[in-house]
Amino acid sequence: MKRFQFLLTILYPFCVSTRHDDYRLFVEEGKLWYTRGNMRQLKLFQTIFIILLFPVQLLVAQESNSFTIHVENVETGEALPFAQVYRGGKNLTMTNFDGDFSIKGSPTDSICITCFGYKPINKAIKDLGLVVQMEMLTKMMHEVTIRPIEYWLIKASKKLRREYRRHQFKKARYFYRERMKHDSISSLIEAFVDANSAVNLRHLYMRTGRQMGAKWKTSELWLNSQVGVMTKGVKYWKEHGPLISPLSSDASEEFYKKYYNITYKILDDSRGGRIYQIHFQKKKDNTRQSIITGFLFLDAETLSPLVMHGHIENVEVWTGGNRHFLIQNCKVSLHLEYTHVNGFSEVSNITTFCVVAKGLTNRTTLFRLEKEISRNEINFRGSELGPKETIVKHVNSVGYDSAFWANHQIIKQTAEERFIATSGMK
């Protein structure tokens, strides 16, 4: 507004009489006041001003448009969480648990929506409509590999170990959201964290955060996000015994025979390549150790992990509201996706969900930010998250800026999360 006021003071004398007793101009609180002005000249001034202002207004309007879109399965109508939204090759956001996402931009902006196992969609925002329906990749190859699948898993494990050694100190920035619910009382935490991102997340460093809803002490369940198809460098898992995972660093034929029953299929991907869909089931006699089970999707050409969808079984956690208590043999649902844009396997996003006890649930999501947020935008001292610590401690110790949070809603809140954020109870 100050720039427009300056423009008014510069242009006005050229559009009206320059006699000082013929006009008087005041710019006050964005309003134009005039006295004894020549009306014809004033109209000319108004016309020039509107012409100059219109392109600026149009540009601001285009940039501030916000679009909310729902993504679902075309056959079942079920919402699709974890769908990635790209613009200009950069991952901007992903769909929430209701299958919704919001994005700012021009209606003519072209975006790409991808969801693992579905055909990608590339369209301008204005052509998407309010609901996007995605088709599954249904074509399946029935070829049988010459070598057993364990051979390829061991090779994939060796490749991950090399990537970890080379890139273990690489960091990325993530958007963090945790929802804890105990009966009718809920807490919602959002934060921006930096983390070592190769193979699995570790050494989380909170930059800024906020807590909404019930102000209780949350649990150690955020530690479940520090897992991967191979889990390295996490103090929590070292202290609680090794975490058995599909591409463990000590993978061997004996390892797989001891811990897993393995079956697999070979699928086509959307680019014409091949993907191993490998099902890891826990051996019945291994009930005490923490172990990752479920479906691993592995690129058959590069042997790079793509997605892990399953569970972390036999997890031991401390949790509670006003006091902490120990939960043993907890089963945590896990959805983990990798990106390889930097030439190595890096966590793209991870979501865990846990029914801790009767009436007590926890859901945590971390989403890698490809759109860089500058240091000037997050100008807080930060705080490193350690094992045996609750996330609330760090939220209360780092800086908070309401203007920053208003401009950085990375993942659209679900209806439940919005209710917690606004009223504090659900």
Structural class: alpha+beta
Biggest sheet strand order reads: 10-14-15-16-17-18-19-20-11-12-13-21
How confident overall, as mean pLDDT?
Answer: 79
| First-last Cα distance | 42 Å
Helices and strands, in N-to-C order? HEEHEEEEEEEEHEEEHHEEEEEEEEHHH
Question: What overall form do the CA principal axes indicate?
Answer: globular
Note the main sheet: 12 strands, antiparallel
Helix coverage percent of residues?
Answer: 10-25%
Number of domains: 3
Number of helices: 8
Stretches where pLDDT falls below 50 for ≥5 residues?
A: 1-39, 53-63
DSSP strand content:
35-45%
The number of distinct β-strands equals 21
Structure in words:
- The structure is a single chain.
- The chain is of the alpha+beta class.
- The chain has 3 domains: 2-62, no CATH class; 66-134, Carboxypeptidase-like, regulatory domain (Immunoglobulin-like, Sandwich), CATH 2.60.40.1120; 140-423, no CATH class.
- It is built from 8 helices and 21 strands.
- It has helices spanning 2-15, 39-64, 149-167, 235-239, 253-259, 391-397, 402-406, 415-423, and strands spanning 24-28, 31-35, 66-73, 84-87, 90-94, 100-104, 110-114, 121-124, 131-134, 140-141, 171-182, 185-196, 202-213, 260-268, 274-282, 291-299, 305-319, 325-339, 346-357, 360-368, 383-384.
- The chain has a 12-stranded antiparallel beta sheet with strand order 10-14-15-16-17-18-19-20-11-12-13-21. A 4-stranded antiparallel beta sheet has the order 5-4-7-8, with no helix packed on it.
- The radius of gyration is 27 Å and the shape is globular.
